[in-house]
Structures are given as structure tokens and as C-alpha cells.
């Protein structure tokens, strides 16, 4: 009889959670130690919600209006088509709380803001329980939210800790339906542009499918005085976008530098000089080209020959055309003493002073190319080509070299971002 009663209870909860289980097929209802739980939330074995008490109906109502996207620490609200990325507890006067902006991508407008966590998220946090298993998702950030909403926190220190803070989420609305691939794409672009305008902007964590520098150097945080209220962009090359995001999150400065240089190499490979394109277009559009192909073949070959510029020349041009010298100048000013001195690396590689401490922007703007791309190329070669070590021209992978390369990472970071944004092939 007890077994029949247990099955009936599970069946009852399954019926009540029919909508939730339909949208979240990886989750299920289980009975453990005289209590019922919804387990495998977000397809994450470390999280469970307990179905207990008179207010369990609040949990059921919340879940039936949600999709728990496996790739995110977030909720998707079905009734408003809004993503709520679970953030953290913040002071009530934190500057993030006033940040809201429109993000326009492919003519679709997304409204983005930081704000108080939704009632549904707080309800989920109240019923959240750790299962005892661990994953790399930090329990989808639910633990501090649960501690916050506990009605009777026992330690006095805990009570003091929660004074003046509140649970915060990041909301993105404007989706037409739940489409994980679309949300991932938008999230990646948001990550890129939020950190483009604010180096300390919170970062949307995108979990893997499996669900799992120098202290003295400075990096320019804000590109402009204020974070823009609207960001408009076209759809960028997904390969380059993934490289940029990988570089941005890489713990290894050397690897991050090489990622950003890869963006420059890609853009340079596909670069075609404007004058060459004009000549080729003029030949191809000639009205009698089909009637006299031999007549125009030699001209077309001559134009193609003009494309045969060296990779170094093309990389210099994409940096010169795609980057603003005043942005690069601002980044150099963050570590002026470093860039105005000779830098020697273990392995024998040397970088001569790039600018002097009394260099003005006007003089910098006249000399920064091709000097800047040439220097970045030399650093890249010194990082990659082990054979250079025999000639004393390498940057050895040592702990002492890591802080020395960090200021150049900040520079190539800015340059690669601009190439990605303003190059039509990126």
C-alpha cells in the first residue's frame, strides 16, 4: 500500500508540473527520504527543488511558466519571452542597477537592464536544495539568493551581511520565442559589446554543452564617459566572435594575445585593396565582356596580380583602416612608463621603447602605423616560433614573462575589437 501511495504522489506532482516537464524534459520528480523533489534542473545534477509545505503551489506555478536553459545560469519566462540571467547580491547603490539599454542586432530590438530578481527566481531560491553532487555551474548562483530570502537566518553575521544589499538579475527581453541558438548568439554579442564599453561589466556565463597579468599593468575600463543607452550592430562572423570571446575569458595572457592576433590575420587574409576591387568590378561589369572574354582576361589577370600583396602589408592596412588611433593612444597612456622603456624578455626577445613619455597624440597619430602592427607581429612570432629561441628572439613561457606581455595584451585587445566591429568581412 505504501508503494502505491508513493507512486500516486509522484504522479500527482507530475500532473501539476505537466507544463514545466514538457518544456524541461530532462527534469523529473523523485521521492527521497519522505519528501518529493524536482531534480536535474537545468539538466544539472547538483540542484533540486523540494516540494514541501503549503507554499509549494507557488513553486509549481513558477516552474510552469519557465524554461531553465541548460547553457545558462538563467530563467526564460514563457509569458514575457524574457531571459533573466541570475546574477548576484549587490548593494542597493551599485552603479549596475541604473544600467539599462537597447541592443539592436539584425533589426531586432532587445531591451536590457539590471534589476531586482523576479518573484519567480526568489521562489525557486526558497525551495532550492543542494543534492550533494558538484558541477562547474556554482548551483546556478542560487545559494546566495536562498541565504538572502531565509526568513530566520541564524548567525548574526549573516543578518548583518544582508543589510543594504538585494538580489539582482540581468534581464533581456525582445525574443519572439525560446530558441537556444538565438539566445546564445545574442548573449555572445552582448558579452562582447558590454565589455567593449565597460571593462568591468558583468559577463553572461555560457556553459559548455557538457554543463561543465601583471598586477601592475592597467587596462582602460570605459571606452566612453557613459555606457551607451542603445547599441546597434550587424551580425558578426561567428568564428571571429567566438575567438574574441575566448580571448576575453582566457586566463593565459599569451593565449589571449594569440587569439586576438588571429582576428587580425583572418581580416588581413581576406583584405582586398579598394582600388583593386574597383578595377575588377569595372572589368566584370563591362557590357561586352561575354562577347569578348579574351580581350578582358589579361586586364583581369593584371588586376588580380595587384592583389598579391604580402600578408604583412595587408595586416598593416587593415589596422590602419579599421582602428582609431585615439582609442589605441588611450590604452597606451594607461601604461606609459612601460611603453616608453626598453623591455627585455626571457628568451632574448627585446621591444624597444614604442613611444616616449613626452610623445603627443599628434605625433603618435602620424607614426603609429606601420609601427604598431609590425610590433604586434614580432611579439606574435616571438610567442609562437620556438626556433627563434636559438637566435635569442623568443619570449619564453616563463612566469616572469607573463606580466611583461600583459600591457601589450590590452593594446591588441582594443585593436582586434575594432577590426572585428568595423571590418565588413568580420
What topology emerges from the helices and strands here?
Layout: H1 2-16, H2 18-23, E1 28-32, E2 35-39, E3 47-51, H3 56-63, E4 66-67, E5 74-77, E6 82-91, E7 100-105, E8 108-116, H4 119-127, E9 128-130, H5 142-149, H6 156-161, E10 165-173, H7 180-197, E11 230-233, H8 238-249, H9 253-269, H10 274-284, H11 293-305, H12 311-322, H13 325-333, H14 336-339, E12 343-344, E13 350-351, H15 361-384, H16 401-422
Description:
It is built from 16 helices and 13 strands. With 426 residues, the chain is α+β, with helices and mostly antiparallel strands. The strands form three sheets. A seven-stranded mixed beta sheet has the order 4-5-6-10-8-7-11. It has a four-stranded antiparallel beta sheet with strand order 1-2-3-9. A hairpin with a 5-residue loop joins strand 12 (343-344) and strand 13. Helix 4 packs across helix 5, helix 8 (238-249) runs antiparallel to helix 9 and helix 9 crosses helix 12. The chain starts with a helix and ends with a helix.
List keywords for this structure.
single chain, 426 residues, alpha+beta, seven-stranded mixed sheet, four-stranded antiparallel sheet
Derived structural class = alpha+beta
* Shape call: globular
Q: What Rg do the Cα atoms give?
A: 28 Å
> What summary fits the major beta sheet?
7 strands, mixed
Question: What is the arithmetic mean of pLDDT?
Answer: 87
Describe, in short, the structure shown.
This protein is of the alpha+beta class and 426 residues long.
Amino acid at each position: 500500500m505504501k508503494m502505491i501511495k508513493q507512486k500516486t504522489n509522484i504522479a500527482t506532482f507530475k500532473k501539476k508540473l505537466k507544463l514545466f516537464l514538457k518544456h524541461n524534459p530532462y527534469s523529473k520528480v523523485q521521492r527521497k527520504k519522505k519528501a518529493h523533489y524536482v531534480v536535474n534542473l537545468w539538466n544539472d545534477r547538483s540542484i533540486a527543488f523540494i516540494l514541501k509545505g503549503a507554499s509549494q503551489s507557488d513553486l509549481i506555478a513558477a516552474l510552469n511558466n519557465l524554461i531553465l536553459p541548460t547553457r545558462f545560469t538563467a530563467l526564460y519566462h514563457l509569458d514575457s519571452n524574457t531571459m533573466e540571467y541570475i546574477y548576484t547580491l549587490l548593494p542597493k547603490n551599485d552603479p549596475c542597477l541604473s544600467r539599462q539599454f537597447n541592443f539592436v542586432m539584425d533589426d531586432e530590438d532587445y531591451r536590457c537592464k539590471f534589476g531586482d530578481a523576479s518573484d519567480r527566481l526568489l521562489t525557486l531560491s526558497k525551495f532550492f536544495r543542494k543534492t550533494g553532487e558538484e558541477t562547474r555551474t556554482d548551483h546556478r548562483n542560487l545559494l546566495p539568493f536562498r541565504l538572502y530570502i531565509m526568513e530566520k537566518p541564524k548567525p548574526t553575521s549573516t543578518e548583518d551581511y544582508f543589510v543594504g544589499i538585494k538580489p539582482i538579475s540581468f534581464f533581456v527581453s525582445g525574443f519572439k520565442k525560446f530558441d537556444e541558438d538565438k539566445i546564445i548568439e545574442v548573449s555572445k554579442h552582448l558579452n562582447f559589446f558590454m565589455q567593449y564599453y565597460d571593462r568591468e561589466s558583468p559577463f553572461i556565463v555560457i556553459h559548455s554543452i557538457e554543463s561543465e597579468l601583471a598586477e601592475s599593468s592597467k587596462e582602460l575600463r570605459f571606452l566612453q564617459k557613459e555606457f551607451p543607452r542603445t547599441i546597434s550592430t550587424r551580425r558578426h562572423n561567428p568564428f571571429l566572435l567566438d575567438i574574441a570571446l575566448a580571448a576575453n575569458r582566457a586566463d593565459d595572457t599569451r593565449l589571449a594575445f594569440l587569439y586576438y592576433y588571429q582576428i587580425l590575420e583572418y581580416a588581413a587574409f581576406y583584405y582586398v585593396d579598394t582600388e583593386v576591387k574597383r578595377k575588377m568590378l569595372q572589368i566584370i561589369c563591362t557590357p561586352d565582356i561575354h562577347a569578348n572574354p579574351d580581350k578582358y582576361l589579361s586586364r583581369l589577370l593584371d588586376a588580380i596580380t595587384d592583389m598579391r600583396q604580402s600578408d604583412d602589408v595587408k595586416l598593416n592596412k587593415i589596422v590602419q583602416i579599421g582602428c582609431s588611433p585615439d582609442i589605441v593612444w588611450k590604452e597606451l597612456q594607461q601604461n606609459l612608463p612601460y611603453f616608453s622603456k626598453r623591455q627585455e624578455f626571457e628568451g632574448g626577445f627585446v621591444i624597444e621603447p614604442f613611444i616616449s613619455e613626452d610623445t603627443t597624440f599628434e605625433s603618435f597619430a602620424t607614426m603609429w602605423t606601420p609601427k604598431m602592427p609590425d610590433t604586434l607581429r614580432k611579439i606574435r612570432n616571438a610567442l609562437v616560433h620556438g626556433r627563434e629561441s636559438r637566435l635569442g628572439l623568443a619570449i619564453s613561457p616563463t612566469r616572469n614573462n607573463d606580466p611583461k606581455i600583459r600591457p601589450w595584451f590590452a593594446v591588441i585587445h582594443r585593436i582586434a575589437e575594432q577590426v572585428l566591429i568595423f571590418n565588413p568581412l568580420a
